[in-house]
Design brief:
The chain has helices at 15-25, 37-40, 48-56, 62-72, 90-99, 133-139, 141-157, 176-191; strands at residues 3-7, 32-36, 76-82, 106-107, 115-116, 122-128, 160-167. α1 (15-25) crosses α8 (176-191). 44% of the residues lie in helices and 19% in strands. β4 and β5 form a beta hairpin. The strands form 2 sheets. The protein has a 5-stranded parallel sheet, sandwiched between helices. A two-stranded antiparallel sheet has the order 4-5. It has 8 helices and 7 strands; from the N terminus they run βαβαααβαβββααβα. It starts with a strand and ends with a helix. With 192 residues, it is of the alpha/beta class. It is globular.
């Protein structure tokens, strides 16, 4: 089973990177591809070229073609990112905007509405939260994120939902035991 772990954080020494690296280490190394969007310099800006690709359902920019190929090699996709303003970092959102595109991740246009295109893929989310679990629950952050990403992106593209795990208190209080538990739950879900 092949896995693509995508990390979106500008600081390579961040807890986000450490969690992603720990997860990669918990999985068979010959089956894991690691995508560090910031280190690789992925351009998240949705351009006129991307708009054209959306309209014609093809003719994708070269960098998008490369990302599509990475995802096509995977059966499991893991997104590891910090929560910024109830959402994902702009880098990851731009990656999704540009790569999960019409004609590949889904189809729109003539016919019977939306046609999901990524049913072969299972996605897992590992979110690093600056606050504790009670605050997320009280304010509804967890539900908001699940709706936004799970319903708005994964379901739309036909991606099977895996696990969603939060590393709470990532800014100050996440313990090694908390991180180990999240990594183990995600690795267990991936291994089936």
């Amino acid at each position: 089973m092949s896995m693509l772990i995508v990390v979106a954080h500008p600081d390579p020494s961040s807890l986000t990177h450490r969690v992603a690296e720990r997860l990669a280490a918990a999985l068979p190394p010959d089956q894991v591809e690691f995508a560090d969007l910031a280190a690789e310099g992925f351009d998240p800006r949705f351009t006129l070229g991307d708009r054209h690709s959306y309209r014609v359902a093809g003719e994708y920019p070269d960098d998008v073609v490369a990302e599509i190929a990475r995802i096509e090699r995977a059966e499991q996709l893991v997104l590891v990112f910090p929560v910024f303003w109830w959402s994902m970092p702009a880098l990851l959102k731009g990656w999704i905007d540009r790569v999960f595109t019409n004609g590949w991740a889904f189809g729109v246009g003539e016919g019977s509405g939306i046609r999901p295109g990524l049913g072969h893929l299972t996605a897992h989310l590992v979110l690093l939260a600056g606050s504790d679990a009670p605050l997320y629950e009280r304010r509804g952050y967890d539900v908001s994120l699940e709706t936004q990403i799970g319903t708005g992106i994964l379901d739309y593209c036909g991606i099977q939902r895996g696990v969603t795990e939060f590393v709470y208190d990532a800014d100050a209080g996440a313990t090694a035991a908390d991180i180990d538990a999240v990594v183990e739950r995600v690795a267990t879900a991936i291994r089936g």
